[in-house]
UniProtKB/TrEMBL annotation:
It comes from the Bacteria. It holds the Pfam family HEAT_2. This is Heat domain-containing protein. Signal peptide: none annotated. The keyword Metal-binding does not apply. Keywords: Antenna complex, Phycobilisome. It comes from Planktothrix serta PCC 8927.
Length: 235
């Protein structure tokens, strides 16, 4: 337990790293020093922080560039937005592109169309899952439906699963009538994991089509799919 001076009950405030020290760390060859400096920049105004963040955009270490993406998201200016769009499109590492996608979501619904464009451009599973999560957080049902229609038939199983979960999320949105047919199209998918996911998602939809599909899945040849149906099945 930490005790504070009774004459001053407020906890001590963390010290802000001096700008000269931040610049020295950014010039250091040790990535750990650069990461620490980048983290400290969130305490500075955009006119100070953004140029220093941009100076690290081409660093060889992908983790440094990932931290830059995080830092740019905290600034939320036109300049940082433009830089993040460049990182999403052109950075060579998927981890960085995914982090840039997460940071873009901090700019709110106006960036949704940019995230959709990035989804079509980038077929990396990590980037696509980051974009799906971002659009769920932004509550943009039309854009979310669009990428789910694209991703649900893709080659990566984890992206397909994320799309199914997102279609379930759309059950309470303006896109429910368009989301349901996408789920129904996967009722007979060759992967038991997909069918099980669909079963869980269909419980969110109150409609005769969903009930009929759940009854069919209740007879599935794989017990794990049947279990997924019975988790929330109401007879």
């Amino acid at each position: 337990m930490i005790l504070y001076d009774i004459e001053d009950p407020s906890p001590p405030q963390p010290e802000i790293m001096e700008l000269s020290e931040i610049k020295a760390c950014l010039a250091n060859t040790n990535p750990k020093d650069r990461l620490k400096a980048i983290q400290e920049l969130h305490q500075y105004e955009p006119e100070v922080a953004i140029p220093l963040l941009l100076s690290q955009m081409q660093e060889k270490d992908f983790l440094v560039r990932s931290f830059v993406a995080m830092g740019l998201g905290k600034q939320r200016t036109a300049e940082s937005l433009a830089a993040l769009l460049q990182m999403v499109k052109f950075d060579r590492d998927a981890n960085v592109r995914a982090e840039a996608s997460n940071s873009l979501s901090l700019f709110g619904q106006p960036v949704a169309s940019h995230l959709v464009a990035a989804f079509y451009q980038d077929d990396n599973w990590l980037v696509r899952r980051s974009i799906i999560g971002a659009l769920v957080e932004l509550d943009c049902p039309e854009h979310l439906l669009e990428i789910c229609v694209c991703g649900i038939d893709g080659e990566d199983l984890t992206v397909q699963e994320a799309c199914i979960d997102s279609l379930a999320f759309l059950a309470s949105s303006s896109q429910r009538e368009k989301a349901l047919p996408q789920l129904l199209s996967k009722v007979k998918d060759s992967s038991w994991r997909i069918r099980a996911r669909v079963a869980r998602a269909l419980h969110r939809f109150s409609s005769p089509q969903a009930e009929t599909a759940l009854e069919a899945l209740k007879q599935d040849e794989d017990h794990r799919v049947v279990a997924a149906v019975l988790e929330n099945f109401v007879s």
